[in-house]
Amino acid sequence: MKVRFVSSLVFMFWTGAALAAGPAVTPDLIAKGKESYTTNCLLCHGEAGDGNGPAGSAMNPKPRDFVKDKFKKGDKPDAVFKVVSDGLKDTSMTGYAHLPVEERWAVTHYLLTFRAKK
Q1: pTM assigned to the model
Q2: Has residue 60 been placed in a domain?
Q3: By residue range, what is the domain housing residue 105?
């Protein structure tokens, strides 16, 4: 019984650490992120990630321009993941914690590709 309990703790620690680091960034993960972005983010942030989506013009503050605006909580993957998951207080950015963890990581890494296009 004691070994089983310790094994459960090790598993919980390991999976928590793996989730904190996120999955490996692969072309498939980026493609999954783009698909989710198109469904969940494009309306506000726009196809180019510039904050000029069809609904974005009606928002105050305007949606983040992922290409050139600073990220309020930082542009490290774990910080972006937290915003994708929890949203941003006092903005129209809602959290997407209802999405599976891997999908939120996929969106996170897809968002960061807009920075690379600078």
Answers
A1: 0.80
A2: yes
A3: 24-116
Task: Look up the CATH number of the domain holding residue 65.
Answer: 1.10.760.10
Estimate to the nearest angstrom the gap between the alpha carbon of 43 and the chain centroid: 16
Total tally of structural domains belonging to the chain: 1
DSSP for the chain, written as a single string: -HHHHHHHHHHHHHHHHHHHH-----HHHHHHHHHHHHHHTHHHH-TTSSS--TTGGG-SSPPP-TTTSPPTT-SSHHHHHHHHHHB-TTSS-B--TTS-HHHHHHHHHHHHHHHHT-
Query: What is the mean pLDDT, run by run of 10 residues, along the chain of 118 residues?
Result: 46 47 93 98 96 92 92 93 95 95 98 83
β-partners of residue 94 are: 87
